Amino acid sequence: MSYIATFDLIGCGVFAISGAIIAFQQRVDGIGVVVLATVTAIGGGTVRDLLLDVPVFWLHQPNYIYTIIFASIVTILWINSSRKIPGKSLEVADALGLALFVVMGTEKALSAGVPAVTAVIMGTLTGCFGGLLRDVFANQIPLIFRKELYAVCCISGGLVYVTLLNFLSVHISAIIAFLCVLLLRLAALRWGWSIHVFKFPDHSSH
Amino acid sequence: MSYIATFDLIGCGVFAISGAIIAFQQRVDGIGVVVLATVTAIGGGTVRDLLLDVPVFWLHQPNYIYTIIFASIVTILWINSSRKIPGKSLEVADALGLALFVVMGTEKALSAGVPAVTAVIMGTLTGCFGGLLRDVFANQIPLIFRKELYAVCCISGGLVYVTLLNFLSVHISAIIAFLCVLLLRLAALRWGWSIHVFKFPDHSSH
Amino acid sequence: MSYIATFDLIGCGVFAISGAIIAFQQRVDGIGVVVLATVTAIGGGTVRDLLLDVPVFWLHQPNYIYTIIFASIVTILWINSSRKIPGKSLEVADALGLALFVVMGTEKALSAGVPAVTAVIMGTLTGCFGGLLRDVFANQIPLIFRKELYAVCCISGGLVYVTLLNFLSVHISAIIAFLCVLLLRLAALRWGWSIHVFKFPDHSSH
After folding, report:
1. By the 8 A CB rule, do C62 and C33 touch?
2. pLDDT in tens, B32-86
3. What are the residue boundaries of the Glycine transporter domain, all occurrences included (chains A, B, C) (predicted)?
4. Cβ separation of C139 and B136 shorter than 8 Å?
5. What distance, in Å, lies between the first and last C-alpha atoms of chain B?
6. What pLDDT was estimated at residue A124?
């Protein structure tokens, strides 16, 4: 239990950093930075827990809040002193957080007794919905509607996890699904993979 | 019970199609199409169930998810092959879905034991909130703030339903309220009805 | 109990007025005015109750809905007849509503048994989240990301309240925390206080 909680806090911290950096890029200031960091870090898991009707995970565990505040402050100090926004290193950290959140969200949903397909959706929500809410609150078109395979990585990881559970132990299934999300996301970033479903008649008009 | 579930699935499918079409019109691509279709189809009922503190309706019924995925794929294939977006026929289907959702949302709220005025709000949420969330996620001004009488149709249908229940059976009340929403909506579309509450001093400045 | 319910209704009415005025300023019309007024008035408390997993406060108490509808109609009539938007008087009323909501939200969270730091967040949500949702629904950058110390006033009031409870009675703690939010907010408005955490390299480029 203890090392899962540790991973969860790490995931929150990484997502909070990514939220604070996007706040800076969108020139949000003041308390808005912490608000966006918080929404990015715990928004997905919060919506998952509300839908599953289980206690919201951070409600009785202030450690999540402390982690987010700490991560936000460190990010603010660092941006103000170095003026450089981390590119690649943040993306790798974000992919790690994503992979953690997807596997843990899917597992939590299965523990709550929902069907496998619903569990995959819950894992995807855990990974994506915080970032979606962050973009909605900052009045931006959500990144997941544009970003390379972000949601597809989550869905794939969830499907891999619920499938492997039929054959393998929870731990091994979790590790393989985690690696699946991580590698797929890093590959999508590296080679700029994306999915197009529409053949828009005129790409230049918008 | 069975035919209500069927109606509910039809309503979800219709709303998913409308969500996917709006995704195309707003040039959302990839997985975003399915996300917007899903939010349109189940967003209103999900918020209703969260507020009523009853189990979220699609959590243990993957049929809703399958219906939405199927409707999204058909819509994508159809748009890509025909390049024509359905106008009138979609509006009629959307009005049918709206009428279904309002009556069923109001009835579900009454079954959960809330007062009549709250049940009318829940019926309206069921009909409107999915589309509102879709527009918010796509970073658009919500259609219900502009569209002809969309919310007014929902409120009227809910009021008719809770009023008629005092005199008539559930089935007859539901059918009359359903027709009320449907006809009011189609009339508002046909004759471009809308409501203005403010006398803006200068309509041209915005 | 009775006078708390009265304060709560007053807070809702004031926030509904502020929501309807902002709807006018953003040229939202028709039913959208009532939607934005409602979201402003009960959005924060609704999210708080969902997170705490307690019954949503307005679900069985239609008085909140009646108050919001009444406040919206009065605001609409008044704007249409006078064409003047109240400036200072609205800000003072809004600050009063904010102070009420923060103290009552923090207290409700403590009663639900969450840790003090979570209770402060819940008090802040009660005060700020309705306005945040209003801005998100109206497709605007949320005011709390720009407005002078809005969220900081809430956080301060919540921290004062949970701290004083260790030494003083509930009533006296509530009154002091209430005055703390109110005076801090009025001072921030009067002297234009704001917080900057980032040193943006080039303020003119955006």
Report:
1. no
2. 888 899 999 999 999 999 999 999 999 999 999 999 999 999 988 888 887 677 6
3. 6-78, 92-164
4. yes
5. 49
6. 94
Which of A110, A118, A145 to probe by mutation at the B interface, max B CB count within 10 Å?
A145
Best CA proximity match to C175, nearest among C122, C109, C112, C104: C104
- Contact between residue A181 and residue A154 where contact means Cβ atoms under 8 Å apart: yes
pLDDT tens digits, A106-162: 999 999 999 999 999 999 999 999 988 988 888 887 877 776 688 889 999 999 999
B80: distance to nearest CA of chain A, Å?
A: 6
Q: Give percent of chain B above pLDDT 70.
A: 93
d(CA A184, CA B154): 44
In the numeric block, the tokens 């008035």 are attached to C41
Distance (Å, whole) CA C38 – CA C32: 10
Of the residues A22, A24, A27, A31, the best mutation for testing chain C's interface (the one with the most C CB atoms within 10 Å of its CB) is A31
The secondary structure of residue A168, as a DSSP letter, is: S
What is the ipTM for the molecules in this complex? 0.87
Domain borders along chain C are 2-195
Which among A50, A132, A198 is the nearest to B137, CB-wise? A132
Whether the predicted pLDDT of C204 surpasses 50: no
Q: Which of A115, A140, A197 sits opposite B62 (nearest CB)?
A: A115
Subunits with 3+ Cβ pairs within 8 Å of A are B, C
- Cross-chain Cβ contact A142/B32 below 8 Å: yes
Cβ atoms A161, A108 nearer than 8 A: no
Nearest CA in chain A to C155: A31
Using CB atoms, which chains have 3+ pairs under 8 A with B?
A, C
Query: Cβ contacts (< 8 Å) between C137 and chain B: which residues?
Result: 132, 136, 142
In this predicted structure, the answer to whether residue A12 has a pLDDT above a threshold of 60 is yes
User: Per-residue pLDDT averaged across A29-52, rounded?
Assistant: 91
Given the structure tokens 């309705």, which residue do they identify?
Answer: C130
Selected for mutation to probe chain A from B59, B85, B139 (highest A CB count within 10 Å) is B59
What is d(CA B66, CA B37) in angstroms, rounded to the nearest whole number? 12
- A152: nearest CA partner in chain B: B31
Q: pLDDT tens-digit profile of A167-180? A: 999 999 999 999 99
Contact between A95 and A184 (Cβ < 8 Å): no
Length of chain A: 206
Q: Is A29 left (phi over 0), alpha (psi -120 to 50) or beta?
A: beta
User: Which amino acid is residue B20, in one-letter code?
Assistant: A
Interatomic CA distance for residues C18 and C118, integer angstroms:
27
Of A199-203, C87-91, C125-129, the range with the lowest mean pLDDT is A199-203
- Between CA C191 and CA C181 the distance in angstroms is 15
Q: Are B68 and B150 in contact (CB under 8 A)?
A: no
Chain C hits for A31, Cβ within 8 Å: 144, 149, 151-152, 155, 195
